[in-house]
Specification:
The structure holds two protein chains of two kinds. By secondary structure, chain A is mainly β. Chain A has no helices and eleven strands. In chain A, the strands form two sheets. In chain A, strands 2, 4, 5, 6, 9, 10 and 11 form a seven-stranded mixed β-sheet that branches. In chain A, strands 1-3-8-7 form a four-stranded antiparallel β-sheet, with no helix packed on it. Chain A is globular. The radius of gyration of chain B is 14 Å and the shape is globular. Classes of the chains: A mainly beta, B mainly beta. Chains A and B meet through β4, β5 and β9 of A and β5 and β10 of B.
């Protein structure tokens, strides 16, 4: 597709459960980013991939959060033992180095609700 | 640590009026200052961006004014329209090599009355 695709668009899970959120970046974009947007706030950086490797995971809040990008395209954000405070919209973005900030594109996000 | 402070939190403007949103930053490593527009249920979409060596940038009805010494920048929306009603975020981008890890402000919810 032409844009960044995130699935599911909505996810409701019970406290303590494990969830996976998927991001399909724009084809050819080597960089992929995950952000978390809490209600009424701006997105906060979680993790950045360049190719297959996590180049910077300094934004992950704790070790319950983990992300992978095994083939350098699709990425999965994994959250273990979910807590109510994890409820937020999780945004994915991808970028291409040759287009600078103008090639930095966000998906529509996955709204995660932990009940 | 909040590195980008944005105000106001909400703004109501009449159609045809000027909307002004302000941001202040702390991190002098920021190399790009983009503004994003976000509609409910959608991801942020880039509106306009400026580099710190430029004091003003205009694209259509949208203008960024940048004051490097004060570490402040603002978005002006001229001739505001109801379709501009959305949440606006400023951001700082410490571009380093290939990485663009944006730091966002807390957002301004703009309502343009018809």
């Amino acid at each position: 597709g032409a844009g960044v695709s995130q699935t599911p668009s909505n996810k409701v899970t019970e406290k303590g459960k494990y969830v996976e959120l998927r991001c399909d970046p724009i084809s050819g974009h080597t960089a992929l980013y995950w952000y978390r947007q809490s209600l009424g706030q701006g997105p906060e950086f979680l993790i950045y991939f360049q190719g297959t490797g996590a180049a910077d995971d300094s934004g992950l809040p704790n070790d319950r959060f983990f992300a992978v990008r095994p083939e350098g395209s699709v990425s999965t954000l994994k959250i273990q033992r979910t807590e109510r405070g994890d409820s937020a919209v999780y945004l994915c973005a991808s970028s291409s180095p040759d287009r600078g900030i103008y090639g930095y594109t966000f998906g529509s996000g996955t709204r995660l609700t932990v009940v | 640590q909040q590195q980008v402070k944005q105000s106001p939190q909400s703004l109501i403007v009449q159609k045809g009026g000027i909307s002004i949103i302000n941001c202040a930053y702390e991190n002098t490593a920021f190399d790009y200052f983009p503004w994003y527009q976000q509609f409910p249920g959608k991801g942020p979409a880039l509106l306009i961006a400026i580099r710190p060596d430029v004091s003003e940038k205009k694209e259509g009805r949208f203008t960024i004014s940048f004051n490097k010494s004060a570490k402040q920048f603002s978005l002006h929306i001229m001739d505001s329209q109801p379709g501009d009603s959305a949440t606006y975020f400023c951001a700082g981008d410490p571009y380093s090599g290939s990485a663009r890890q944006l730091t966002f402000g807390s957002g301004t919810q703009l309502t343009v009355l018809p």
